[in-house]
Amino acid sequence: MNNIQKITRFIIPAMIVLVGCQTQSPIQATDGEDISVKEVTIPDPDTHYELSWNNGLFEYKVSDGERSFKCLSKKATLRDLANFSINDCYNGYLADKIKNKKALTAEDGILLSFILNAQLTVIDTFSVALLGDMTSPGALHGFIVQCKDRSTAFSQNESNPEILRQQNDAFTELKINFLEETEGIRAPMRVWGNGFKVIDQAAIAGVFQGIRKEALSADNSDGNTVSKNPWIWTGIVLSGGLIGAGVMYSVSPDEPNVLEEACNKYNRDSVIGKEQWQAMCQTLSTYSSELDRLMRDMRNYVESDGVSDSASRRIVEDALANTRNDYQGAQKYLDYAIYDLPFGLLTYKARARMKACQGFFDDDEEKMKDVWADYAIAVSDKDMLRNVRTWYSASVYTRLIELMKKEMWKTDFKAFCEATRLFKINRVNKGKEENDISPYYNTKIE
Question: In angstroms, how far apart are the furthest CA atoms of the chain?
């Protein structure tokens, strides 16, 4: 990728002005008296800067106080936007100032706002696309991030609304294009997500509703059943207007036995599903990690004693404050799409299969072990377990273990725990920190 950063100084020749003195005549000999000549001050010439980042796909430019953002190619993608904002604009220029606690200009604050808008847009679109792939029709939530002023420098400059409009227009088109793409990262996302469409959509919506509300438990013992009309159609609204439709679930999740029956229809081979999920997760997590690093750099900047310029500190503080809600929301929904929702659906499937191993007088414990082994592969061992964000997801998992524990003799269950390295969740951590899990067989078997 051709990365060009240009800083040009246009110097207007300044007239030489003698300040605070009269023109002196040529030095002549005197009667021993010193000659006193006042210092002549020459003003600095007027200097204008042009900063430009252009990689052939996008251009961000500042010239004589005027700034613009352009998408230069019809082939540019959402991922290209992420790479341009991070690699060219941040790593190539702004990171040096922020990481080394240097003073920032007003233009730096506006550029930082652009970078944040771009990265948040990418993460938000990933979650909308993946949740949409898993359901039919439409996505389980609409876009939550829109381009907006994220710095004091941005909001104080009257010429900024124009570049903000340019961002809105370009980002909207890139988001729509990404949802419709069939190549690049969209290919494994579609393949992975479409496997869940065999599950009744009301059941998926019920699980997602429990996750979204971050319910403390997945126990639906109140006997609620699926509504005959569970879907509420909602418009997905972007800055450019209504571009599609989404769906939300209107009632509480259905009772577990109905969800288990619905999720048991998922029929993708566990090994293939694990490989597809890991490939997709690795790519998507890269972009999430880049946004995390950017936010961490900004927090370190405002907390550092090495920042002596108060105006610079305010620029970053303001950008953090105006980004916090969108950052938390975008990252949360991406985690729901990658971890919580598939983990919940696959766990309900395992519960259905575990119940099928039960007999009137005796249970098929060997088959139960096979069910668990297959389930462990499907959820990528402990990878999903470490990263689910909600106690709802954790409780679905806990009830699966309790179901199996109830059907086995104590010694058999302990031996099974040791053989399969079955894990338990000690704590679901907030934010990006992985959950605290430990081997179940280290605990007392009651």
Answer: 129
